[in-house]
Amino acid sequence: MITFTKTFLNGAVAAAAMMAGTLQMASADVLTMSSWVPPTHFIHTDFLVPLTEKIAEATEGRVTVTILPAPLASPPQHWELARTGVADITWGNFTYEPERFVSMWFAEFPNAGTKAEAQSRALWQTYEQFLADNSAFDGVKMLAVGMFGGGQLHHGAKAVTSPADIANQKFRMGGPIQEKLLTALGSVPVAAPATKAYEMLESGVVDGSLHTMESVVNFRLEDVLKHHTVFPNGLYDATFFVAMNGARWDGLSDADKTAIEGVIGEGLSAAWGKNFDDQSVAAVEKLTASGHEVVEASPELIAEVDRIYGAMVADWIEAAKGAGVSDPQAMLDFYKETYNSLAGE
What we know:
Structural class: alpha/beta
Radius of gyration: 24 Å
Strand order of the largest sheet: 7-6-8-5-9-11
Distance between the termini: 73 Å
CATH architecture of the largest domain: 3-Layer(aba) Sandwich
CATH superfamily of the largest domain: Bacterial extracellular solute-binding protein, family 7
CATH class of the largest domain: Alpha Beta
Order of helices and strands: HEHEHEHEEHEHEHEHEEHHHEHH
Number of strands: 11
Shape: globular
């Protein structure tokens, strides 16, 4: 009788434990993430996967994130996927929707910096202070913002260091700010995604292409881009987001929201930037070791870019006011001062 009772009680305890575990799993929040880079890309392996792990750890498994095996839409549609709740979490490029995110243009202009971690932290602080209540960002919970550490100029056949070198040359580019910059420099911009760069260069459709140093390596363009012109403060940049559907965020428990707040924001933005910094350093080392020509832009070319930059800022200030930014110049100044301070640490 005693043996039977012990057996029964042990079994009941085990069953109760199993039921409690099942109920906990059933009540857990499982979030879906749509990503558009392959699982071998460093953004996936070194940034997105660690983010899912941090969220699970911070919430003690109550909130988990599943990265879907294929993107739910094209890269430019990923903001809408999060805003409308088709996916719970997405990441993407503000550049893909330039009219919606006029307020972000300032960070994609020349001279935005070349240290991605400092840039990304400065952009997060700028977003929080100046843009968190802007209607362009309605419908989402912003988890992080990021930049990539300064895009540069790359050519397949020659070093480009002066304004004369760039005139009439055809360059692949990826957005309206890059298009305006190249046109003002007297070159011919050709719009195409970075994934098309190799075939365009190999076939002679373009002479060069705009990229970060890391993307020359990560897009395997070393054979067709052997000359790299570096602008000390960056020729252009791109701005990125990691966003969660606002209603889905609001539906989490207060305890889980507090826990997740500890692994997002400026810290997550810094992690984004650090990954790009690490990749860029490795890329420069690899390209240099392979005999590629890496040169600085001449003072004349830098001065010409600075002149164009001044005109771009003046135009943007008016556009940003129309997009609901009360003092665009103050926002730009805040970003620059914050970046310079963080970059000097």
